[in-house]
């Protein structure tokens, strides 16, 4: 049963990843993610269904548009493969838990936010708010199905605590952190709180740790200066994913 669930979630992740590519391209421009159909950014030709199969179409076309030969970014299959892998690992971690659908929505949002923040330094409200409005009811439904209101309570505490912490950081140093990170932290705190309040602390710690390590490495390589701003959303996403997938062994290793 576990193998079937993981496989099904991996396939679902490929399909969702294909949609996330549309989200990543259109949401920052405030365009509809439904219409029009996907088109080549070079010639504007509509992409045929046979050329829209996740990963396989990109490989078959050797990363180029069938109509004009314009190169198609490797980001497209990378997003699809990453989403599939994270969906499979999340399913492996949670199993047939009623909260699994909510966590898949959350992971998909993190995948979409990461390249947008890396490229444009924004965490779009058009991703954060729908994620919250869809996933919070799903978590409440999971609590009702399993009778697990303790997890729902800790999710609420985690969300409020993470949001409050990041709001204070933003208020003290608004140039050092965007308000989109504050909103995202509340959603992350909610999901990690569902797993446990220690997971909230772990996820945020890993976010700051990874940001510090990468920041120092970039400065050492001469790629960034001390005053350069590094998008923090991808590190929040990384910390959250690590806390979900490896939180239990990491916390046990630390003695919690």
SSE arrangement:
Elements: H1 2-26, H2 56-60, H3 75-94, H4 100-120, H5 125-146, H6 149-172, H7 179-195, H8 197-220, H9 233-254
Helix pairs in contact: 1-3, 1-4, 3-4, 4-5, 4-9, 5-6, 5-7, 6-7, 7-8, 7-9, 8-9
Q: Which terms summarize this structure?
A:
single chain; 2 domains; mainly alpha; 256 residues
Structural class: mainly alpha
H/E order of the elements? Answer: HHHHHHHHH
Number of structural units classed as domains: 2
Low-confidence stretches: none
How much of the sequence lies in strands comes to under 5%
The biggest sheet, with number of strands, parallel, antiparallel or mixed sense and barrel status, is: none
Number of strands: 0
State the helical fraction: over 70%
Residue-averaged pLDDT: 91
Shape: globular
Our Rg estimate from Cα atoms comes to: 19 Å
Number of helices: 9
The termini sit apart by: 31 Å
Structure description:
By secondary structure, this protein is an all-alpha fold. The chain has two domains: 1-96, no CATH class; 97-256, no CATH class. The chain has helices spanning 2-26, 56-60, 75-94, 100-120, 125-146, 149-172, 179-195, 197-220, 233-254. Helix 4 crosses helix 9 and helix 7 packs parallel to helix 9. The longest helix is centred in the N-terminal third of the chain and has 25 residues, at 2-26. It is globular and about 55 Å long. The protein starts with a helix and ends with a helix. The model has no long low-confidence stretch (mean pLDDT 91).
